[in-house]
Amino acid sequence: MDDAHRAFLQAFLASPVMTFADAQPRLAAIQTIFEERDILVQDITQDELANYISNLNNLISPLDYEIRSIHSQTDPSRTVTYALVNAASDAMTQVATNHSPDEIAFVKKVIDAMFEGSGNKEIFAVPGMQALNIAKQPRNRESMVAATQADGEPQMTQGQVKALTLDQAERVLASLVAEGWFEKSRREYYSLSPRALMELRGWLVDTYDGEAVEEGDESMKRVRFCEGCREILTIGQRCHNRECGCRIHDTCTQGFFRGQTEKRCPRCEAAWTGTDFVGERAAGGRVQNMPVRRGRPSAASRNTQSMANADSDDD
């Protein structure tokens, strides 16, 4: 590994998640130093970044590290996010680095709600107040909490999990957003970030699709993939036929249906409506371009908050 690649790897270690725009100034600075000539930010191309990442992956693969990438599910320009991940460790142990076992149990309950809640509407997101109240609810699958064996190796065992207070849950959610694991929308829905979808992909499939794979039942699957780009999908469109497993990112539909006079599902050939959604839009109401409300909360919101505070006082 030459000094330039080593320096770029150090940049990823300092900032494990980057977009192309994030990487450009870092790579330009590195090349300016090691090539002993001025390299402008705009001189760094997407192809050059891809070559650096490909070379780095070849070098760090024996160390069980990998730089993975995923396209934005909402940006029409399909912005790519890159993340340095430990390919050998259990995905949830990376989330657990900065959190206690009780907090991780809460995080898992929130993710359960994303993938198993909402009557299988495939919202893949949780409203803020629901996320806070989840802290008091038992997990609908065995709550597996990180423990430590005598030899120091982590193991997953069922343990006594303490419920978090609303204040504690709120701090955990804020930290997950700050750490890049969760995203928070204008409507205050929490969902998995691109980083989380990259790093937790295998864990999500094992956790939520294991039974569906065993039964061979497509309708039981909770983790969805785009028919176009084959990447994981939590925001996009679905086939109107509920029994069909076809899902397509909004950003992939134009290319996928280009030239078709009548859009039809590529799997079951049902008419493709373009109005059957996956993600926050499946919850109903306005989602896109919704301004953040900062005024006095509604009566319903105040009542919900009062009930939540009353629950907190009961602890």
Q: What topology does this entry show?
A:
Blueprint: H1 3-14, E1 17-19, H2 20-35, H3 46-60, E2 65-71, E3 80-86, H4 91-95, H5 101-116, E4 126-127, H6 128-134, E5 144-148, E6 154-158, H7 166-178, E7 182-184, E8 189-192, H8 194-199, H9 201-208, H10 210-215, E9 224-225, E10 232-233, E11 236-238, E12 247-248, H11 250-257, E13 277-278, H12 299-313
Antiparallel strand pairs: 1-3, 2-3, 4-8, 5-6, 7-8, 9-10, 11-12, 11-13
Helix pairs in contact: 1-2
Region (Disordered): 286-315
Domain Non-structural maintenance of chromosomes element 1 RING C4HC3-type: 226-268
Family: Belongs to the NSE1 family.
* Tally of separate helices: 12
Overall pLDDT:
83
The total domain count is 3
**At the first level of CATH, what is the class of the largest domain?**
Alpha Beta
Order of neighbouring strands in the sheet with most strands = 1-3-2
CATH architecture of the largest domain: Alpha-Beta Complex
Helix/strand/pairing category: alpha+beta
Q: What is the overall shape?
A: globular
Number of E-state strands: 13
Order of helices and strands: HEHHEEHHEHEEHEEHHHEEEEHEH
Family: Belongs to the NSE1 family.
Domain Non-structural maintenance of chromosomes element 1 RING C4HC3-type: 226-268
EC number: 2.3.2.27
GO cellular component, one term: Smc5-Smc6 complex
Question: Could you walk me through the main structural features you see in this protein, from its secondary elements to its overall organization?
Answer:
The protein folds into 3 domains: 3-90, Aspartate Aminotransferase, domain 1; 99-180, no CATH class; 223-283, Zinc/RING finger domain, C3HC4 (zinc finger) (Herpes Virus-1, 2-Layer Sandwich). It has 315 residues and is of the alpha+beta class. It is globular and about 60 Å long. Helix 1 (3-14) packs antiparallel against helix 2. It is 40% helix and 15% strand. The termini are far apart. It has a 3-stranded antiparallel sheet with strand order 1-3-2. Strands 4-8-7 form a 3-stranded antiparallel sheet. It has a 3-stranded antiparallel sheet with strand order 12-11-13. Residues 142-158 and 288-315 have low confidence and may be disordered. A hairpin with a 4-residue loop joins strand 7 (182-184) and strand 8 (189-192). The longest helix is centred in the N-terminal third of the chain and has 16 residues, at 20-35. Residues 226-268 form the Non-structural maintenance of chromosomes element 1 RING C4HC3-type domain. It comes from Aulographum hederae CBS 113979. It is an enzyme of class 2 (transferase). This is Non-structural maintenance of chromosomes element 1 homolog. It is found in: Nucleus.
